[in-house]
Amino acid sequence: MWRQVKYLQCRRIRFVYQSRTSSSSTVGPRKDSSKRKVVETESKLPFTIPLQWSRIKEKINFEQIKEKTSLASSVVDAIKYGGNPQSRRDAIKDIISRTIMSKGQTQEEMGLLEAVRGLTDAAKQLNTRFGDGKIPLSVVNTPGLHYYLEHTESIQTPTWKRRKHLFCPKAKTEAVKKVRQYAHMTDIAYLYTRTEIQQSLDEMTRKKLLVNNGGGGGVWEIIHSDMNAMPGKPAHYFTVFHPNDNTAPEAYLVIRGTFSIPDIITDTQLDEVPFYDGSAHSGMQSSGIWIAEVYAKTLSELENVKRSAILNKPMKVKLIGHSLGGGAAAIATIHLRRSGRVKNVECFTIGSPPVVSEELASECADYVTSVVCDDDIVPRLTRTTILNLAQQVSVFDWTTFLRRDLEELVQELQYAVPFLLSSPDTREKLLKVIENYVLVAFAPEKGKTFADDKKESVFTENKLFQPGSLLHMYRTGRGFAATWVRRKMFAEIAFSRTMLDDHFCEAYVKAADEILNG
């Protein structure tokens, strides 16, 4: 091997020498060309090879070689005949998991897979309770979820999203400014102390993030704050903004959501209860009624006092909430309006889950606005959507995707570690063994499946919806856009890599900023 390297080095030296010599006669004096010749020759002498090897050695990733060697050993264990069947199964599991990990999805999908496991657990309980066990949920597994994610993302492209919003009315700039302000305020609700809340509100004023900045500023007055959440009693703060000009003050009751996506998934399994002319989510109905009863008298008195004090202009009273807090805010607003105790109250929800029946959701469209950021999973979480997602994953054939990745994997291993995988038919042996294993371990159950009963199922239609008018901020491929949409836009879970990140308040702020600055 070293002789070949030296030979090639010498051939390269002669080639460089001849090229330099032939070109020197036309380019410049012979003396200068000879200097160039000497320097070039000295830099390419064979005895410099050890130095070059040391440099190459520094660039070799021995950990990667070790990883590929270990993976190749698993391939050998999987395709060899005889031996312990359990060892073969373990080797196959190792190959499948490493194949998925090699796609670069490990870290970024940890939170996603955790949420999906929560969805799967919820689906199993709902399947037993409402679906009579019709969904073959035993086939909902990590490899299937990974490849189903790849499948859905290949469909839900920015072009596809733009087409779905083609005939939806575009939101005006003022509406997007409200999203940015209220998303900031709901993010502040996740702070722990009154001092932190006050400082963050003042910073919003300094950065001119308010829709109505009071002619250049104003003062925030925190009336009350309770940041210790309890069952049925969400954390919240109540504040009034006093503008510097003659515009009317604005009162904000801001309700915190939950810190945990699995908690939201658990809450979606609760029953609906009667609520005025329709029904509501039982958990958020109790939270919303509690908020309304606690603040009804205060809001009414504050509204009446300020109405006569500031040029007879009515005070604006708004309830704002993120996630489950948004659902509670919507319930409280409907209750305050229907009871007639606070007539001027409005509501703005950020990433709220579906909380009321369709008739109530439409009835409150004049005073409740619900905002959704792209693929945010929470506004799409209902019993129906969870079960439908589980059904779609369970019948999805992902073996074609796995075979594609395994072919690429074996080709790479045969190149990287040929001393372990020298046989030309290694790939076909591996594919045959793994396919047989996959079909046995993960194949859909034989006989009647959920897909056969889809039209007759009791969970094919949503019973709860997002309240009020719906504003959707979605990715266009060049940034974000905002349009007013119909409720059917969120009838299914948008299974994507960003469906969790899109739920955070920061995602709403960022999307609004991109729209306003775009």
Give your account of this protein's structure.
It is a single chain. The protein has 518 residues and is an alpha/beta fold. An eight-stranded mixed beta sheet has the order 1-2-3-6-7-8-9-10. The chain contains 18 helices and ten strands. The chain is elongated, with a radius of gyration of 32 Å. Helix 4 (62-79) crosses helix 5. The protein has three domains: 2-60; 69-153 and 395-453, no CATH class; 163-385 and 464-517, Rossmann fold, CATH 3.40.50. It has helices spanning 2-27, 30-43, 49-59, 62-79, 85-101, 110-130, 142-155, 158-164, 173-188, 194-206, 261-267, 282-309, 324-339, 358-363, 383-394, 399-416, 426-442, 505-517; strands at 218-226, 236-243, 250-255, 272-275, 278-281, 316-322, 345-350, 368-373, 469-475, 480-485.
State the gist of this model:
The protein is 53% helix and 12% strand. The chain has 518 residues and is an alpha/beta fold.
The secondary-structure class comes to alpha/beta
Let me know the CATH homologous superfamily of the largest domain: Alpha/Beta hydrolase fold, catalytic domain
Distance, first to last CA: 59 Å
List SSEs in N-to-C order: HHHHHHHHHHEEEHEEHEHEHEHHHEEH
Question: Overall 3D geometry?
Answer: elongated
Kindly report the CATH topology of the largest domain.
Rossmann fold
**What percentage of the residues does DSSP assign to strands (E)?**
5-15%
Oligomer: single chain
- Give the low-pLDDT segments: 1-57, 104-108, 445-458
Task: Provide the spatial order of strands within the biggest beta sheet.
Answer: 1-2-3-6-7-8-9-10
CATH C-level of the largest domain? Alpha Beta
Helix content: 40-55%
The pLDDT mean sits at: 76
Largest sheet: number of strands, sense, barrel closure? 8 strands, mixed
Query: What's the count of strands?
Result: 10
* CATH architect. name of the largest domain: 3-Layer(aba) Sandwich
Q: Tell me the count of domains.
A: 3
Q: Tell me the Rg in angstroms.
A: 32 Å
Helix count equals: 18
